[in-house]
Amino acid sequence: MIAETQDASTNYATLAPLKSSTPAKPFSAYVGNYTNEYFGTLEVSVEDGRLILRLPPRGSYYELTHWNEDTFTYYFTSENTGVGRRGAKFSPERNQVLIENLAPEHSAVFTRSQPVQ
After folding, report:
1. Phi (first) and psi of residue 80, to 5 degrees
2. What is the Cα–Cα distance from 4 to 44, expressed in whole angstroms?
3. E strands of 1-117, at which residues?
4. pLDDT tens digits for range 33-85
5. How far apart are the first and last CA of the chain?
6. Which residues contact 20 (CB under 8 A, 6 or more apart)?
7. Cα torsion 46, 86, 17, 96: sign
8. 37 CB-contact burial (10 Å; exposed 0-12 / middle 13-18 / buried 19+)
9. Which residue has the higher pLDDT, 11 or 95?
10. Strand 40-47 vs strand 50-55: parallel, antiparallel, or unpaired?
């Protein structure tokens, strides 16, 4: 079962850099607390000019790097999901974010519940 989910999500580190990408929205479009019934609450904030993701349950800290439009990546390592750059795909108009490396096991769409001040 672990072999099926190992590296099931896109590893952006193995992809060629985009020759042209659509710019991200201002960081404020992504900031907030997002909840998921299974995984709990994650937080997206701006710290020292960087977009930061904190994943449940321990609030692990990851710096988000822009990939294209509303997709960001972060360095992630786990015995279950492998090592690499994993994706966070935001849908600001829906107040949601998909955390790709969590998706093979459960719905990994988090819905924004409140903005971070």
Report:
1. -95, -30
2. 29
3. 32-36, 40-47, 50-55, 60-63, 65-68, 71-78, 82-91, 96-99, 109-114
4. 999 999 899 999 999 999 999 987 777 889 999 999 999 999 876 655 556 78
5. 41
6. none
7. negative
8. exposed
9. 95
10. antiparallel
CA distance 24 to 51: 11
CB distance 90 to 97 below 8 Å: yes
Q: Which amino acid is at 44?
A: V
CA angle 35-106-14, nearest 5°?
A: 100
Which amino acid is present at 22? T
109: how many CB neighbours lie within 10 A of its CB?
Answer: 18
Assigned token pair, 80: 């279950």
Task: Give the chain's domains with CATH numbers.
Answer: 2-11+29-114 (2.40.128.600)
Cα separation, 61 vs 41, in Å, equals 13
pTM for the whole structure: 0.83
Whether 77 and 71 have beta carbons less than 8 Å apart is answered as: no
Q: Tell me how far apart the alpha carbons of residues 16 and 47 are, in angstroms, rounded to a whole number.
A: 28
Is the confidence at residue 93, as pLDDT, over 70? yes
